[in-house]
Amino acid sequence: MIAPDPMSRTRVVASGLASALLSFFVVHAAGCGTDAVGVDECRDIEEARCEAGKYCGLVDDVDTCKRFYRDQCLHGLAAGERPGAPRVRDCVEAIQAAGECAKNGAKTVADCAAFPTKTYHTEICDVVTEPEGAQACEFLYKPVEVPDATPDVSPDTTPDAAGDAPDTDAADAAPE
């Protein structure tokens, strides 16, 4: 009887393992794509926020902030659609204006005559932290989808054409 070669078993196991790993990486690499929308637009806006944030006391190191958002923006804009270059430019200008106002000592939007857009914010640095509150940046807001909360209406309680609830005792009240 011939003894099995231990090297051939090792080769078979190694070959099987290599095949399994190759299959794993091929299958998982196919799922690594991205459908991110507005990556460059996100980066433009976040860079403006990093620079303006310095004057609001929100950012200590602007370069570190920019590097962080360069990677974070790989997810794209939350709204899921491209706003277009003019809208992004207006938003960036609004954020930059808020930063300039803060740099010049303005605390509120009312104190900053140079602020170029309407906003629901009263504090100038709130425009930097939540730019979607400024009219120029409102495209950043992604509304939350609320499920339909309409209650089921059974035929017994459906209002008639006049808007009155049906009379369930109508048959009992009919004259004989």
Can you offer a commentary on this structure?
46% of the residues lie in helices and 0% in strands. It has 176 residues and is mainly α. The protein has a domain at 39-140. The longest helix has 24 residues, at 6-29. The radius of gyration is 31 Å and the shape is globular. Mean pLDDT is 76; it is low at 16-31.
Keywords:
6 helices, 176 residues, globular, mainly alpha
Write a short abstract of this structure.
Helix content is 46%, strand content 0%.
What global shape is seen?
Answer: globular
Q: What is the chain-wise order of helices and strands?
A: HHHHHH
Global structural class: mainly alpha
Largest sheet: none
The radius of gyration computed from the alpha-carbon positions, rounded to a whole number of angstroms, is 31 Å
Helical content band:
40-55%
Q: How many helical elements?
A: 6
Task: Note the beta-strand portion.
Answer: under 5%
Oligomer classification: single chain
β-strand number: 0
Give the end-to-end Cα distance, rounded to a whole number of Å: 107 Å
* Mean of pLDDT: 76
Unreliable stretches? 16-31
